[in-house]
Amino acid sequence: MKAAEVRAAVEDELKTTQFVDVHTHLFMPSLGALGLWGIDELITYHYLEAELFRSSPIAPEEYFALSKAQKADVIWRALFVENAPVSEATRGVVAVLNALGLPTDSADLNEAREFFRARKLDSHIDEVFQLAGISEVVMTNDPLDPEEGPLWEKGAARDARFHPVLRLDRILNKWAEHWRILASKGYAVDENASGRSAAQVRRFLADWVERMQPVYMAVSLPDTFQYPEESIRARLIREAVLPACRDANIPMSLMIGVRYQVNPALRLAGDAVGKADLRSVERLCRDFPDNRFLISVLSRENQHELVVYARKFRNLMPFGCWWFLNNPSIVEEITRERLEMLGTTFIPQHSDARVLEQVIYKWRNTRRTLAPVLANAYSLLIEDGRSVTRDDIRRDIVRLFRGNFEQFAGAGVKSSASVRTGSTADRTYS
Ligand code: RAT
Ligand code: ZN
User: Fold this and answer.
1) 28, 155 in Cβ contact below 8 A?
2) Which residues contact 9 (CB under 8 A, 6 or more apart)?
3) Which residue owns the Cα nearest ligand 1 atom 2?
4) Which residue lies with its CA nearest to atom 5 of ligand 1?
5) What ligand is nearest to the CA atom of residue 168?
6) What confidence tens digit (pLDDT) does each residue in 311-320 have?
7) Of the candidates 10, 48, 156, 343, which lies 20 to 30 Å from 268 by C-alpha distance?
């Protein structure tokens, strides 16, 4: 292939490859109202709520007292009518409206609301996935979420388009508020997670693996996260979570670097970012070679270190440009760095979508930002004397956007829609 043909070939392969979205907050239809979709949800996304309070004098308390539709009207007026929507999150809404054939510069949301009212969720999901160029998404499923847990316990119908993930934030970050729920369900745990508690949490996780068939377990962590340390979280990770992941042969995902609720008045939009100490990742990868770790770090300053650790530990898979990093300028920089130091052995992006239709703009933006980055890598290779074929490009893109995840998640992905059988030989719960 000639250098001049590379860009078009990369764009074409990016367009035709169906990606796997390895981390979202979307839900399969049987989880009902948890699954957000439609215009009012799109406009009230917490990324846009954060931007509202910069462009409008409305007070957070006043805003949060409104109905969902009123909130959407306020945001639409402030960010899309009274300002040109040039930020990443606002431009995303424009791209979604455009992809669905809706006007992008209306004075109100009436036409969009009518459009969504007429959609049937199941076929709408298919169409949205097709527009986004994805075949499957990975959900975030917290068994201690009071709305969600009971739906799984009743046997929520599975959907091959949605893979479950056992999310552990309530257990690992808020033990004090949640241990009693485990106790009430017959797991002999105590307030300090002492004695048999860790073994009982391991049993709880094994039961949920059985029920949910997750593709991995996951937790988001503060910038102050430390491992090892004397804490309930560290003990539960060591004695319950990592053994349960080994039993199930699935990875553990750590999303590190959140500064929770620096401005609580903004609710979901009130979290910020801090640089973390990634020696914790080093210790985990070294001390638990039989575990696999999917790692995303929120701080830009942590990105280079993460790539270096990935060169040291094959059980570490860096993934995504998360939340405040999911902007073209930063995605471009991080992906170049990863390609230069890891070749194609990483997962470039996930959408983190909370509202179904967001996958359309988030994946469109990823393809647009990464096409020149990938094309540049092949052009340099050609310049340095190696030919590049269409098959090379296809193989790499499939690896980056599906294969690496499927391989790293292993047992999980292949059987998340069916029943997995695993060795139970080394499980002790006493
Ligand atoms: O990006 C986000 O929407 C954040 O609010 C978080 O949900 C984050 O992605 C997480 O999974 O904790
Ligand atoms: Zn997320």
Assistant:
1) no
2) 1, 390, 393
3) 323
4) 268
5) 1
6) 999 999 999 9
7) 156
Q: What's the gap in Å between 352 CA and the centre of ligand 2? A: 5
Q: Quote the CA–CA distance of 184 and 208 in Å, as a whole number.
A: 16
Give the predicted TM-score (pTM) of the model.
0.95
- The CA 195 to ligand 2 mean position distance, Å, reads 33
Point out the ligand nearest to the CA of residue 354. 1
**273 SS3 class:** strand
pLDDT tens digit sequence for 149-200: 999 999 999 999 999 999 999 999 999 999 999 999 999 999 999 999 999 9
How many angstroms is it from 423 CA to the middle of ligand 2? Answer: 31
Q: Are 76 and 107 in contact (CB under 8 A)?
A: no
Q: Which atom of ligand 1 is nearest to the CA of 323?
A: 1
Q: Spell out the residues 6+ positions from residue 174 whose beta carbon is closer than 8 angstroms to its own.
A: none
Q: Are strands 272-273 and 252-259 parallel, antiparallel or unpaired?
A: antiparallel
Shortest-distance Cα residue to atom 1 of ligand 1: 323
Q: Nearest 5 degrees, angle CA 24-CA 347-CA 142? A: 30
Ligand 1, from 140, 220, 349: best to mutate by most atoms within 8 Å of Cβ? 220
**328-342 vs 358-383: helix crossing angle, rounded to 10:** 40
Q: Which tokens hold the place of 208?
A: 């949920």
Q: What angle do CA 50, 55, 59 make, to 5 degrees?
A: 70
Under the banding of pLDDT at 50, 70 and 90, the label for residue 204 is very high
Ligand nearest to the CA of 254: 1
- Torsion angles phi and psi, residue 20, rounded to 5: -105, 125
- How confident is the model over 334-357, as a mean pLDDT? 98
Residue 268 alpha carbon, nearest atom of ligand 1: 5
416 vs 47: which has the higher pLDDT: 47
List of residues 6+ apart from 232 with CB closer than 8 A:
175, 192, 193
Q: How many other C-beta atoms lie within 10 A of the C-beta of residue 187?
A: 19
Residue 185 phi/psi, 5-degree rounding, is -95, 10
Burial (0-12, 13-18, 19+ Cβ within 10 Å), 145? middle
